[in-house]
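Lab meeting notes turned into a lecture example. A postdoc, R.K., suggested we walk through two folding results consecutively so the class can see how the record format repeats. The first protein's sequence and structure tokens come next.
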Amino acid sequence: MITSETGTPLASDLPPRLGSLTFHGPLSEARATRMIERLAAAGPADVLDIGCGWGELLLRVLEAAPAAEGVGIDINTEDLARGRALAERRGLADRVAFVEESALGTDRGPVDAILCLGSSQALCDPELPHDPAAALRELRRLVRPGGRVVLGEGFWERTPTEAELAGMWPGATVDDHFSLGALVDLAVEAGFRPAWIETAGAEEWEEFESGYRYDTEVWLAAHPDHPLAAETRERVDRQRSSWLNGYRNVLGIAYLTLVAVA
């Protein structure tokens, strides 16, 4: 193991994080392109990305809508730094801000367009169970009438069995998600019209799940005796098992392009 003069492991020697992912979710290039085209066609002046991560989708929206400016908010410092570097590299640094802050109760609206992919929990009270209805009401508050929201939200493809729930995340229950129909109904109740409804396919899921762990698995194979190997191995083994033995072919991701009712 290579260390600095102070004995701290160098960054290049540490387990990598998500380097093989373009998007932090089961989203293909083709689907992302179509979603961006629909969003950019509305000519947004300002775009808010909630739980932006490194903001790949936000940056692509700004490239497709050259009059727009964007703000991405997240609480992960490393992801935000990656987003700023990407923006600088692509000549977008003067049109986008990556801000480390909570989305709960944010006053960064109203805006013309919102991205919220796999991050609706950031709009909910962390002391309460995740509530997509509450998140949708918040999204409606944050977007102008006629504005667009692209929401990526989990739903049950079918009711999970007890064995499948036991294999998922700790404390998983059937109440953690709605069916797709019930989720879309919640969007309508919150003041949206569902302009486009689509769901991630099996190939998108496999690309995401494998890409999520790929760099770490390769690192573990090369560093089996590293001081961080045991905890890293335990973490990725648990993640992989929760997918293969729990939510695979049970949990879906819906991508809803929503238009705010005037």
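The second example is placed directly after the first for contrast:
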Amino acid sequence: MTAKAEQKPLLRALGGEAVWPPPMWLMRQAGRYLPEYREIRATAGGFIKLCTTPELAAEVTLQPIRRYGMDGAILFSDILMVPWALGQPLRFAEGEGPMLEPLRDAAAVNALELGAVRARVAPILETVRLVRAAVDAQHPKTALIGFAGSPFTVACYMVEGHGSRDFATTRSMAFGDPALFGKLIRTLVEATTEYLLAQAEAGAEALMLFDSWAGLLPPSQFRRWVIEPTTIIVRSLKRQYPHIPVIGFPRLAGPLIGEYTQRTGVDTVAMDTSMDPKFAAGAVPPTVGLQGNLDPLVLIAGGAALELEARQILAAMRGRPFVFNLGHGIEKVTPPDHVAQLVRIVRAGG
């Protein structure tokens, strides 16, 4: 790691240093709550077009950095760009969320095109290069975070074909046809690893794996479909880029957060909204960072409630490696002024 990189507060915290006040960024910090984002989105020609037009995606990534001075700039993209790159038809319907052609049998899994991934994500990698150049030149204390969805969560959308509260079809496949589901997961491990390595090569300074639906699984399945694939990916990343920190987000992992952290080898684990920071601090080794976990709804409320909740998290995390964040993505109705209030609270150290 270069001397310049070591000065970035986010990279210091992800590297195991108890930085105070803690560095901060917010999940989905680039998005619909910002008027400047809505202006670009209105003329971009669709969400996939926005994600695959480097100049626009770079601009959107940088908007919250200019507005708030966040310590992390997370690549503007989507976890479903991996199935899209594998050749699964994908569209984003207004008011309905992502829609994919459901993947239900061996023929559909066999039709996925691993060899096409690198070429199809080329525009996203160009976004990484553009953002890295911009932060280095204009925001030298901000670190660029690349990301992907973890295999189980991405598989949920690929099998179901859309969002769901329980992803029952996916979980039924995992129980009823583990050979087929395992083949899909192995395909996603390979594609996700290649995608993240390419982001690192293009300039990402940290990498994050989002497993938003991990908490739907019972412990035995959590270990098989969340911990094991994540472990393989992290090991592959560390072999080639040992200095690049990896953040894992096993949403709703509950008491399994400690086992997830120790077995996967992630450098930092992100806490969801339901996680008690004090429990996490006891379950996760003190050399491993924690990230989180303000409720996005209290950010909508703002005022005294926001100040109280943020200060409680800060108090629980003081003295250990920590990155302040939300426990899930920012909501589109969040007032931008409330984000500015949060930044002031965190910068003051509570």
